[in-house]
Amino acid sequence: MKKFFPIGIATLFAVLFAGYGIWALWDSAREDGRDEKQLKVAATFSPLYDIAKNVAGEYANVELLVPPGASPHFYEFSPRQLANLQGTKAIFAIGYGADDWVTKAKEAIPGSEITLVDQGIALLSSLEEHGEEGEARDHGPIDPHYWLSFENARIIADTIARKLGELDSEHEADYRENARVYGQELSLAEHEIKEQLSTLESRNIITLHDAFYYFAQNFDLHIVGTFEPRAGEEPTPQFLARLREEIQTNNIKVLFAEPQMNSESLRQFAKDNNLALSLLDEAGGVEGRDSYIGLMRYNGNAISQALK
Ligand SMILES: [Zn+2]
Question: Which residues cross the membrane (predicted)?
């Protein structure tokens, strides 16, 4: 009896494990089945992700690629993330250098396509609109920050609705309706921020990198200059001398740093020149600005506080 006892226990465990194994397999198949039925898409970074989620509603699954609080411009996929993304049909992206790292996903995720959301948007040129003459910009000749305007956000929502409808025709009308309702929310928020910024003392601002020209156009602000000649590039003393002249001429009192970019030199420059500091955010994703509208309100508030 004693001799057979361990075998009895072993058998019992074997049966239990086998039973658990079968249950686990059934359970994961059930979950996969549920996910497989629903369209799976992704968006490169937070504001775009939020717009896509509003349009997708309950009908499609949207994944976020850049973790909240990280810069959208510099990013690398982890192998684990690529594994999680298998089955993704469309990845919504901005393009033009904003999130070009996403092109790597196309090969790594068979059956996926990258959908730029720029259709129908009046793109600004970095060179002509706000670059130094003849100077190459980090982002290329098109300024990619077009998501930072409400008008463009409405166009982006419609583009996403069209794409989701193509991939999942059963819910085509639902996606269109979601985009319409969300478009109204965007218009309301835009109207409120315009009101808030209608009585500013000054409309002149200096930002850290060249992210806010579409935002400035939306709210009738004037970007006098950027602290970095190109995104992520330290300014030379000559560049700063010119910037100091602009600050004098335009009576600038505040500089805008950014949460995802290294702002140390800008902080020092502000201190040396007796300028106040505020913050503008191109990517959000963190508490208080995790939605697109929250991000735009945050930037509106920052400008309203700084220039009142
Ligand atoms: Zn940027």
Answer: 7-26
140: CA distance to ligand 1 center in Å? 12
Distance in Å, CA 260 to ligand 1 centroid: 9
206 in Cβ contact with 266 (< 8 Å): no
How far away, in angstroms, is 281 Cα from ligand 1 center?
A: 9
Count CA atoms closer than 13 A to 49's CA, side-chain side.
Answer: 23
Sequence-ordered strand ranges (E) for the chain: 39-43, 60-64, 90-93, 113-116, 204-207, 222-226, 254-257, 276-279
Give Cα 10 distance to the centre of its chain. Answer: 54
**7 falls within a domain:** no
Same domain, 165 and 274: no
- Rounded to the nearest whole angstrom, what is the distance from the C-alpha of residue 8 to the centroid of ligand 1? 66
Q: What mean pLDDT do residues 181-185 have?
A: 98
Residues with CB under 5 A from ligand 1 (ion): 211, 282
In a domain, 12, yes or no: no
